[in-house]
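U., I forgot to send this yesterday:
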Amino acid sequence: MRFAGKNVVVIGGNSGIGRAAAEAFAAEGARVAIAGRDEATLAETKAAIGGDTLAMKADIADLDTLDAFYSEVGKRNGAIDVLFVNAGIGEFIPFEDVTPEKWDAVQAVNLRGCVFAAQKALPLLRDGGAIVLTGSIGAVLAVPGNAAYAASKAGLRAAARVLAAELLPRKIRVNMVSPGCTETPIINRSGLPPEAVGGMREAMIANTPMHRMGEPGEIARAVLFLASAEASFITGVDLFVDGGAVEL
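Result:
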């Protein structure tokens, strides 16, 4: 019960890693508020968590919807103790086929959206609180077809380090969790035809030293650790949860 009495916000908390983290925070006593783009999965997650969970539709690329969400969080929960920004999109596109429109769509969510999701939460975030951002090992690996996604996550990593430095006076810790290949719905939204997804999964497993996909709950446990008092002397890190893909 590391989060008993704490108010936790999960952006992108309606599926995959975000949902696993939201449920785990709630199981450890947190009062949880989640935001996401899909009303059906928001409702499913709210029902799974139970209690007085706030589940509200918001698109991280649309800053006005973030404002509305945080306004409701403030009314219902008051301050925020933990913010987990997990929203993200990705699509494999050969570099020569990347268009300004496709590039901007990825940056609008993964970089611009996540940065302003953190910024807009600051007035509600308690001193001594924690921010965790979802990065990706794609930011440090040269994966063909991944230029737009990699750039967005690398940019988020840079912004997270600066934010961690700027929030030191408020004793707010800022850290990043970077998953490797993980069984989440985003794998089916990679831009590949359905028949190619299986081959991509096999390739990712082959390139992971532990020779398997990660599970959302395994990433969520790293998120909860960084958000908890157990990580009280940790800020500015990028924690790879990737079955050894980067370091081995």
